[in-house]
Amino acid sequence: MSEAAVEKALDQKMNTVPLKMIGKDVSVYYGEKRALFDVNLDIRENTVTALIGPSGCGKSTFLRTLNRMNDTIENCRVTGRITLDEDDIYDSSIDVVELRARVGMVFQKPNPFPKSIYENVSYGPRIHGLARTKADFDEIVETSLQKAGLWNEVKDRLQEPGTGLSGGQQQRLCIARAVAVSPEVILMDEPCSALDPIATAKVEELIHELRANFTIVIVTHSMQQAARVSQRTAMFHLGNLVEENDTDKMFTNPDDQRTQDYIMGRFG
Amino acid sequence: MTDVASPTVRVSTRPAESRRDIGIKRRYAAERRFRAYGISAIVIGLFFLAVLVWSVVSKGYTAFQQTTITLPIEFSEKVIDPKNERATDPKQLQTANYPVLARDALVKRLGIDPKKRPLVKQANDMVSDSVRTQLRDIVVADPSVIGKTIPVTLLADANIDSAFKGQIDLTVEESKRKVKDQQVAWMNELAEAGVLKKSFNTGIFSFGASSRPEAAGVGVALVGSAYMMLIVLVLSLPIGVAASIYLEEFAPKNRLTDLIEVNINNLAAVPSIVYGLLGLAVFVNFAGMPRSAALVGGLVLTLMTLPTIIIATRAALKAVPPSIRSAALGLGASKMQTIFHHVLPLAMPGILTGTIIGLAHALGETAPLLLIGMVAFVVDYPGSPLEPSTALPVQIYMWANEAERAFVERTSGAIIILLIFLVIMNLGAILLRRRFERRW
């Protein structure tokens, strides 16, 4: 098989992955200021999609449109169309609470509730009525913490405050908390930027494992991280989507000169 | 060319430059000066606090002691009910001439000839007029005491009380002072016998208003204050917290909410007497609520406390880190759930502190209560917030207007009681803060 044929086969394989979310002509305005310009970006199912780009390029803004966290910002206006499994998430028939139960989020700074580890994880299932009995909750807490790779570290101190954990553990607790609601998509906004390299490695490993069950969109400043954890990468610059491609291709042979420059560290 | 160029060691030949003057000394001097200002400000503040506390306590601590005379009182039927009508006329026991019983007992104890009227009168003046109600209450409660002799502890008259506490200068000419030499002699005689002595003054906590200092207390005023505090707490906490949550979390930011915010901040600075006028006009004159009632006082103080609570609550809500809100919203909690499950519990210490400080202000407030008629001579405990009552600071104000020596110490004593309540409330605020404070 020629190299071109292999590439074509790979392309085809990637292209057969169903699309989980579709962003069409997405623009975001903060008051008069326009932060995103007609972004068209698809999120593939059970794939890690990395959003990269220099600071202020709109990647976090785009991420936050995916579960309507921008709604909480005053003067923020979103135009265009974003669908989750064919449903327009900005349609009035979609409740934002329901949407966020399907599209979870992990933030830049670990933000566990100042409550026990158990309460942190069980809070989501409790408000959404996913469990009734104590045993159900125990099970959700255990499996969620296991999925987040935190169970062995905290199983003996579930009643201790989540804020007493180390930074890396807190971030994994936040991931467990998001996982506990059984979302379809998990959005991560620079989840490792406040962590040391060892904690970062653990979270990256975790992202790898989570991919089997969840669709993940991750914003990152680290090229290496994007290369390590993602299958698809989207490059943003000044509110525009510059390029979206397979991660391997993006980091070896990008189509756009600006991507090339950014990856090589010429700006950013 | 095999020789390696040996690196030559260069010795600096530049002369040592004098170091730049970057004003280190000046900076440290400025810092020392600033610290000195701060320390002197604190020292001055502490000095005045000490002066205040010392002057109040030194004048007021004697108010917590009361001179009493314990005498065997003969509940003679001849005096109480000479015609034996008590079975048919219930008024008889109410209107009997009880002070005579005390006078007779004292005259007997001192061995005075009952026919020497001036001496008997002097002896009678040593006992408080309040024996009338005291003895009446004993008899009414248990009419079977009539005809018996039982020891009763009576309040000494305020002048004897002052003299016994050493507050009256006995070197002054007899005609110019309120205590006669004969009375002092009797006083000393009774004191030696252990009949007349100082004991802890429970009356100051339980009595109501009285023109006789020895029978005056802040009990009734405390009940009035308690009613008002209850009304203030029950009304201003929920209203204030609800208003703050709405303004802080739900209300759109526009001209109207800006205007409301400015107004709330200004209302917190409105002189309290203006609230009194408002209460008089709206609650008493317009709504027709009873004058002097704790209900009206409580409503006025609620209005006065609301801005304080709203400002404190909004500040506490603002101080909750946005990351907590994002976390809850990101999990799919509704706005309501986010606020009530996460934001409010974290803001609670701040809200409670603000509320208690607002209540403490309300407890010490006098001016608005004067306008709505709570500056009243209230003898009986108010059974409900609708009955006439007075308040602790108003009681202090009224006593401060009295001329008698014994009222001076009572004024200071009441101030001590008020200060103790305020200290307890503020301590409570600190403890609540410590107890509920959580880290994030």
Automatic annotation (TrEMBL), chain B:
InterPro entries for the chain: DUF3333, MetI-like, MetI-like_sf, Phosphate_PstA
Keyword Lipid metabolism annotated: no
GO cellular component, one term: plasma membrane
Location(s), subcellular: Cell inner membrane; Cell membrane
NCBIfam families documented for this protein: 3a0107s02c
Residues in ABC transmembrane type-1 domain copies: 222-428
Protein name per its UniProtKB record: Phosphate transport system permease protein PstA
This protein's UniProt keywords: Cell membrane, Membrane, Transmembrane, Transmembrane helix, Transport
Bilayer-spanning residue ranges: 34-57, 226-247, 267-287, 293-317, 338-363, 413-432
Entry keyword Transport: yes
Topology within the bilayer: Multi-pass membrane protein
GO molecular function: phosphate transmembrane transporter activity
Biological process, per Gene Ontology: phosphate ion transmembrane transport
Domain of life: Bacteria
Origin species: Sinorhizobium glycinis
Predominant place of localization: membrane
Family of this protein: Belongs to the binding-protein-dependent transport system permease family. CysTW subfamily.
